[in-house]
Design goal:
Elements: H1 6-9, E1 27-28, H2 40-47, H3 52-55, H4 63-73, E2 80-83, H5 86-97, E3 104-108, H6 113-120, E4 125-129, H7 138-143, E5 148-152, H8 164-173, E6 177-181, H9 194-198, E7 202-207, E8 220-223, H10 226-234, H11 243-254, H12 256-279, E9 283-284, E10 291-295, H13 301-310, E11 313-314, E12 327-330, H14 334-348, H15 352-355
Helix pairs in contact: 2-11, 4-11, 5-6, 5-10
The structure holds pyridoxal-5'-phosphate.
The site of pyridoxal-5'-phosphate (PLP) has 13 residues, from helix 5.
Length: 360
């Protein structure tokens, strides 16, 4: 006997990457966290937090943080909605705009949570396969007529990015909402923010989990035209963002100099790690995110993933036939990369590089 809807009984829940217990020492390159601490100013704000903020309910719209987003991005606050991580905003979008006759559409493989949220909502899911280069299948996405179309840009797990001209064509033609999930955009060459002003159906999502080193704080935001923001706000939890997150996040967002330094370091380390992995015979897709999608030589990714874990190096392996030969590796510190590369050299054997090229 079950107390739940049949949909929930048959649902395969979203499985986040492994989080080792506190104190366990591993090289953790599996969940795209930032290897560096958050802004020192934000950490100081956390230490100095006024206890009154905890006694009272927080502002329902996380006004301090919302205002800060508006100032930093030069927008009116009515174009911004704050979430408990961008996952919270994804939930609001699916809850507000999809349902049994209102399909959720996305290119695949991508962020697995899109499917889970659609299934919870009893919405049909249309997953359009990417080609091996991860070029966005724009026409197929349009033809699928989604009530909601998701494009993670840069995409996860590929790290690849679609040009704004393609996104604009999709926004112009698609029937429903187009959600451009920019969780990783700080590590990319450009962003799609300008599309919001031109398209009443576009929602941009951002997060402080990756570029700002605040995955544990849980803070993300949506940018869209005010009618969309107002509609999403109707379905959010009353106090979805806590007082600590709204305050500390605002300080972190204002510290643009620190964030840029960290992001530049990660982008440089991304280039170096990609070169080193190619030297070991891996195929590495061009990434504009803080991770690399990698196909190890002999394509035995599952075994490599397990062997790395045995050596205390966590990377991500996805249980998806389209990704069976690949690993997603988060950009860490140079010390973490040294351990990863040493382990890979041992696992792949000395002559791996000689037997494979860098072709997909
Ligand atoms: C594409 C994408 N969107 C959204 C998220 C969720 O981020 P947040 O920590 O803000 O909920 C992730 C997390 O890994 C992601 O990969």
């Amino acid at each position: 006997m079950s107390f739940f809807r049949p949909t929930i009984d048959s649902l395969s829940p979203y499985v986040p990457g492994l989080q080792p217990a506190a104190g366990v020492s591993v090289v953790k390159l599996n969940t795209n966290e930032n290897p560096y601490p958050a802004s020192p100013r934000a950490l100081e704000a956390l230490r100095q937090l006024d206890p009154q903020r905890l006694r009272c309910y927080p502002d329902p719209l996380a006004d301090e943080f919302r205002q800060t987003v508006a100032t930093v991005l030069n927008l009116d606050p009515s174009w911004v909605l704050v979430g408990n991580g961008s996952d919270d905003l994804l939930t609001m979008v699916v809850r507000a705009a999809s349902g049994p006759d209102l399909p959720v559409v996305y290119p695949s493989p991508t962020y697995v949570l899109y499917r889970t949220l659609a299934e919870i909502q009893d919405a049909p899911v249309v997953a359009i396969p990417f080609d091996d280069q991860f070029s966005l299948p724009v026409d197929e996405l349009i033809n699928a007529s989604g009530a909601v179309t998701f494009v993670a840009n840069p995409n996860s797990p590929s790290g690849t990015k679609t040009e704004n001209t393609q996104l604009a064509r999709l926004a112009d033609t698609v029937d429903g909402l187009l959600v451009i999930d920019e969780a990783y955009v700080a590590f990319a060459d450009d962003d799609a923010l300008a599309l919001v002003a031109e398209h009443p159906n576009v929602i941009i999502l951002r997060t402080l989990s990756k570029s700002h080193g605040l995955a544990g704080l849980r803070l993300g935001f949506a940018i869209a035209q005010p009618p969309i923001i107002a509609g999403l706000a109707k379905v959010k939890d009353s106090y979805n963002v806590d007082a600590v997150a709204a305050h500390v996040g605002a300080v972190a967002l204002r510290d643009t100099v620190y964030t840029s330094e960290v992001v530049e370091r990660i982008k440089n380390d991304r280039t170096q790690l990609a070169t080193a992995l190619q030297g070991l015979g891996c195929h590495v897709w061009p990434s504009q995110a803080n991770f690399l999608l990698v196909r190890p030589p002999q394509a035995d990714a599952k075994r490599v993933h397990q062997d790395l874990e045995t050596r205390g190096v966590l990377v991500r392996y996805f249980d998806d036939p389209a990704l069976a030969t690949t690993l997603r590796i988060t950009i860490g510190t140079s010390d973490q990369h040294a351990v990863l590369l040493d382990s890979l050299r041992t696992i792949l054997g000395g002559d791996a590089a000689a037997t494979t090229g860098n072709g997909p």
